[in-house]
């Protein structure tokens, strides 16, 4: 009877009635229950498990179920069976089991919801062309030949490379071919690949714009380069200052510099390429925001001026969505071997997405989307500038009439950091120019992005901005002040 | 009249009639033509372009068209205009323009087409569930909330992380939660992220299986780790040999080692985790081919034995398609901060693909696909083994009844390298075991993959194999011998 009680305890321990764990069949459920009991330390190392006949009776199942479960756990190393001896538990969880195991008790910080998004970096997510994108994916998923579903070319599928090359020649004046274009997951990915190739070519130092996008600095650093900040003024990167750094390569946003909004002047464009020739170096052109110019026709890429010295990076993150993870890299033909060799485990974006992008462009849907977006953003920018002028006369708007963001300079001494904090507490996302500088400056400014916001939200958002700029914030201000 | 002749030459040079280049409007076409002429060196630096009125007459267009085009090229740095002076070309292509610029004249090596694919690494691409995958993408593209289309979480979207965690708990016996799972682009990506985190934790040496998958070694090296080969025998990784290396971490394929096909024995599973505890190190479990076991129920992952010491890597590359670029990484909870910090620019796969995977699993389509694939591959493996036994009696098949590949040992002295070459010339893809070893061995073997081939192709493929193993290859053998 003692035996029976012991085994009764086993039956309770091995609660196999619940189908939640480990499959549908009874022997799977039994194996799962026993495995869990061993992992939890409820059945300890060295303990004998009941003979299969006994446990089967106890559980009211066939003996086969138990031997299957025991066999499974023996294969997994939790049990060991020796001929002529009892089957025993051969595994123990790591002591002490507390804290280091199990799920972390992450209590999400209770952030107030974002009501108005004036932070830069996003296009209009509500205007993502869902129907056409889904149609492009459906179409290519049906029509792709089966070997397109095999191991992908790290530089991208041939068809989207050709389509992107055509697009860049036609719309951006680039010198691009399917051989010089790689499809990658975005500008960051493209920059990592480029930096690794530069390093393989003996270039260990890269100049970056200051202020600039921190992620580009991170990408370069993570690829093993040292970065050297170079100032940006209203004509873009201060090209003459490059000589003060040991860099033989520079990453630059000539079309619409982030975050200043400057466009690289004609003289500096030429000067930058001349610099690259003189130092036998390279320019990495981040074609950021180039699709959206409202005052004039977009300026062609610098890459066309010297395709042997200029890498070109672009993506659909600011035109369609960063969630698509699709971009491109145009490399000097002579750098193709270094690019391949320095990135042995680089992976192209999913092939079906690449093919969908090609279809989306080939059918004219990308151009149509850009035209509509350009009209939408131009109107929105004009509205934001007018509203800022009317409600915040002390602010001064800077940046070319282009892209998805502008700079709002504020009187010296404005506590922009506190303003960003108070705004966040009130549901308004903002960005401080200092966040993009390598060192803080006395010239205070906010970087305002108007891509991801409705036109009707601009007035209340600016009014909220005026309020947080006026009110000095109290420490630990409440999360929900009065609605605007 | 001289003027007119000169300008006539300009009109010829600037052939704006062809609408191919640079947009639809006439001033775009003129700018494109002039830009191209400057880049090609046909119009040289310092040359004055005709006054806008003159060129407009010559081209038969409005003067506005010419001033627009000139203005565009001035902004791009190709022309410069000074008040009271002619507009001049201010740009010159880099001398010498030959060779270093333009498209590389890549003549694709004329490879014979692949008729039979017996190389390992691919699932059955013809069986990719196109309709259901397209339906999953369509569904999530319509239903995703708009902020899911914003900046993606580098660790993956919350919903697919939860779905993958459930799947791994249910089907693989893993200890996984949405917090410990990251969605990544595959096993290579997961290993790179893991290795970077290990390095940040002070672990600079990683043991790898020998023979093993070279891409895993490349991933570890590219993340800055030193790799140390450790032998594999018929019980899997020789765990005792780990002590001879300085490694405190190891990457291992317990379910079905590639390329030997060994399954890690129960004693070694336990021994490996004990080793990790002793050296305060980590096991990185590559759950390769685990879905396809034909002789018994799949063995649960080792990760469940000690989730604080075992990283788990998996993907759909061998079950659905490598072209999807979707995988997962389960990390010890205590390693989450290091994982994040060491991978500042890591990008998750495209969000819509992640959401599609979650839908594909949640609707039961993944399980259904695996069940059908298991039946298909089991039949195909049996057929291949039987055919090899009948046609190649000198070969010996090794490897557990699992996965998508097997080893074919051949008599000592067989020139497997030459056989692979001759086979390729005859349209049969093969892989030599030596290609996965860090040093050649006297024991000759081929790694045969049967994932990506039709059942009816097995007999002709094996007959072709028999032929290339019999015939010593001639140097520079012709690409197309007689059909089998």
Written description of the protein model:
The structure is a homodimer of 484-residue chains. The first copy, chain A, folds into three domains: 7-111, Winged helix-like DNA-binding domain superfamily/Winged helix DNA-binding domain (Arc Repressor Mutant, subunit A); 130-363, Aspartate Aminotransferase, domain 2 (3-Layer(aba) Sandwich); 367-469, Aspartate Aminotransferase, domain 1. In chain A, 37% of the residues lie in helices and 13% in strands. Chain A contains 14 helices and 16 strands. In chain A, the strands form four sheets. Chain A has an eight-stranded mixed sheet, sandwiched between helices. In chain A, strands 12-13-16-15 form a four-stranded antiparallel sheet, covered by helices on one side. In chain A, strand 6 and strand 7 form a beta hairpin. In chain A, helix 3 (52-59) crosses helix 4, helix 6 (158-172) crosses helix 11 and helix 12 (365-391) crosses helix 14 (458-470). At the A-B interface, helix 2, helix 4, helix 5, helix 6 and helix 7 of A face helix 2, helix 4, helix 5, helix 6 and helix 7 of B.
Q: Which pair has the most extensive contact?
A: A-B, 99 and 98 residues
Q: Identify the CATH architecture of the largest domain in chain A.
A: 3-Layer(aba) Sandwich
Radius of gyration of chain A: 30 Å
**Spatial gap, N to C terminus of chain A:** 76 Å
């Amino acid at each position: 009877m003692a035996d029976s009680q012991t085994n009764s305890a086993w039956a309770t321990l091995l609660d196999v009635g619940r189908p939640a764990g480990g499959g549908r069949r009874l022997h799977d459920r039994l194996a799962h229950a026993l495995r869990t009991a061993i992992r939890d330390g409820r059945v300890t190392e060295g303990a004998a498990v009941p003979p299969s006949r006994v446990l089967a009776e106890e559980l009211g199942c066939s003996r086969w179920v138990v031997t299957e479960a025991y066999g499974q756990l023996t294969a997994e190393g939790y049990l060991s069976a020796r001929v002529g001896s009892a089957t025993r538990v051969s595994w123990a969880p790591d002591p002490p089991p507390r804290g280091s195991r199990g799920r972390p008790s992450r209590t999400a910080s209770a952030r107030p919801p974002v009501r108005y998004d004036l932070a830069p970096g996003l296009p209009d997510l509500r205007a993502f062309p869902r129907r056409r994108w889904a149609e492009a994916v459906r179409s290519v998923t049906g029509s792709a030949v089966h070997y397109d579903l095999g191991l992908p070319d790290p530089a991208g599928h041939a068809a989207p490379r050709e389509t992107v090359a055509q697009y860049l020649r036609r719309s951006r004046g680039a010198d691009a071919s399917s051989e010089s274009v790689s499809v990658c997951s975005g500008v960051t990915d493209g920059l990592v690949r480029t930096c690794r190739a530069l390093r393989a070519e003996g270039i260990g130092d890269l100049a970056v714009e200051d202020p600039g996008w921190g992620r580009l600095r991170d990408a370069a650093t993570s690829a093993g380069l040292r970065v050297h900040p170079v100032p940006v003024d209203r004509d873009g990167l201060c090209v003459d200052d490059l000589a003060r750094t040991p860099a033989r390569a520079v990453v630059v946003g000539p079309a619409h510099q982030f975050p200043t909004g400057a466009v690289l002047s004609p003289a500096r464009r030429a000067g930058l390429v001349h610099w690259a020739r003189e130092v036998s170096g390279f320019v990495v052109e981040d074609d950021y925001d180039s699709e959206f110019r409202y005052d004039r026709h977009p300026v062609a890429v610098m890459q066309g001026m010297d395709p042997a010295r200029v890498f070109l990076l672009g993506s659909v993150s600011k035109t369609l969505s960063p969630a698509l993870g699709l971009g491109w890299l145009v490399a000097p033909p002579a750098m193709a071997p270094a690019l391949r060799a320095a990135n042995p485990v680089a992976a192209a974006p999913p092939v079906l997405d690449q093919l969908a992008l090609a279809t989306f462009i080939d059918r004219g849907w990308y151009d149509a989307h850009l035209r509509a977006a350009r009209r939408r953003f131009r109107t929105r920018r004009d509205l934001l500038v007018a509203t800022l002028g009317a409600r915040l006369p002390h602010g001064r708007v800077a940046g070319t009439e282009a892209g998805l963001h502008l700079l709002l300079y504020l009187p010296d001494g404005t506590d922009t950091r506190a303003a960003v904090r108070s705004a966040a507490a009130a549901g308004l996302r903002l960005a401080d120019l200092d966040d993009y500088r390598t060192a803080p400056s006395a010239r205070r400014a906010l970087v305002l992005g108007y891509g991801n916001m409705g036109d009707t939200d601009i007035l209340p958002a600016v009014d909220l901005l005026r309020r947080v700029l006026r009110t000095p914030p109290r420490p630990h201000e409440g999360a929900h002040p009065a609605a605007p």
